[in-house]
Amino acid sequence: MPDDDRKRRILDAALELADERGLTGVTMRALAQKLGVTAMALYPHIGDKDGLLDGLVDRMLAEMLPAVTVDGTPEERLMAVGQAARELARRHPSAYALLLARPAVTPDAVRLVDAIYGALLELGVPESEVPRVERLITTFALGYASSEANGRFSAGTINPRGRRAQFPAEEVPAHRRLSEVLDRIPDWDAEYEADLQDLLLMLRARWPA
Amino acid sequence: MPDDDRKRRILDAALELADERGLTGVTMRALAQKLGVTAMALYPHIGDKDGLLDGLVDRMLAEMLPAVTVDGTPEERLMAVGQAARELARRHPSAYALLLARPAVTPDAVRLVDAIYGALLELGVPESEVPRVERLITTFALGYASSEANGRFSAGTINPRGRRAQFPAEEVPAHRRLSEVLDRIPDWDAEYEADLQDLLLMLRARWPA
DNA sequence: TTGTATAGATCTACACTGTAGAGGTGCCCG
DNA sequence: CGGGCACCTCTACAGTGTAGATCTATACAA
Known about the structure:
- The structure is a homodimer.
- The first copy, chain A, has helices at 3-21, 28-34, 43-46, 49-64, 74-91, 93-96, 98-101, 107-122, 130-150, 154-157, 160-165, 173-177, 179-183, 188-206.
- By secondary structure, chain A is mainly α.
- The first copy, chain A, has a single domain, classed as Tetracycline Repressor, domain 2 (Orthogonal Bundle), CATH 1.10.357.
- In chain A, helix 9 (130-150) packs antiparallel against helix 14 (188-206).
- The longest helix of chain A is centred in the C-terminal third of the chain and has 21 residues, at 130-150.
- The radius of gyration of chain A is 21 Å and the shape is flat.
- The N and C termini of chain A lie far apart (53 Å).
- At the A-B interface, helix 7, helix 8, helix 9, helix 10 and helix 12 of A face helix 7, helix 8, helix 9, helix 10 and helix 12 of B.
- Chain A binds a DNA duplex through residues 27-29, 37-41, 43-44, 48-49.
């Protein structure tokens, strides 16, 4: 009965819908049908379609929040947040792209950012640089999963040989030199972890404890 | 008369439209009207709407390509590509988001990636790591501009004081400690450049020449 | 019990989207 | 003159978000 419950129910259904049929499948009518209700019945609860998508962003961030309450070294905590982001992306690949496209201003979002700020401060990043570095890291984490989900990575590497073959070898010398490596299909989990490790290494190199 | 010309004309108009009215303003009918033609007249040239958007991706990459032919140290070349990406994002903020969402397999895209591969190899990145590092860097560059264009960054910082005020100070200790820094409005150009520099520094730290 | 206020859902309608399918229209070559 | 051909237009349809009016059921007052 309380309106927040109803809203949460709607967002849950919307997220499920996004997981099943992609973001374009999240239509007011489809969502309403899933809830046994008319499309127009949703409006009082979510505002409009934009409000619905903003709500999805918040829902996902809330889902990620438990990963923040981990303890350990700052490095471990940053890695935990990074991994949580990736798992979220894996669970909701379509909806995840919204995180890059919409600002998040919900209390849970602030708490999440605060945890990252805290870890960076502990690592010795100077105060004036902390917000920038936080944006650097989260931009990468969000962009990575988004690229993966949308096929920016894989579509290019599905058939690298064919793609290279279009070129006279001299025009793309680096591709030629890397041909053996490029034919391997990457392990995205391992790659993401290696990237996070490299970013951490960058922090330590830049601001040694 | 040649079809490629017509296609280029269409893509130019589409990009212009995106710049003026945003991506949602790029509708078949609006685009057609801009060209003094019916919506259906576009289809033989661009396939369908998805084809149009893919075409936009290619057009933008082509626009970026001149930055690749710069010479200098590998660091300088990488920075040049990074800056070119940012300028592109500045010129076409709405359309730029497409780069993260769609794979690019056009010849120009391969040439661009090849230039980055080459710079990384020269920097001493081992062959087996080059593709991963390329993805790391481009993911960041694309994600940054995308975040900026969509307001992921700014919307959160427009009124940081107000946002922090919702919380008991103990719940977001890092925000509290950083309050002075957070009130400053960032210089995004400088921030992006600092980020690129940090990434370069990471490469040098990881694989010293 | 009845009357009424109120919060919610529904119904209808509108402007807009991408695009299938059928029908022109004008030009070039025989 | 008559095809053939490449291009464009017209009409139509299913689907989108949502404004506005209407209905309904529940809660409370007399």
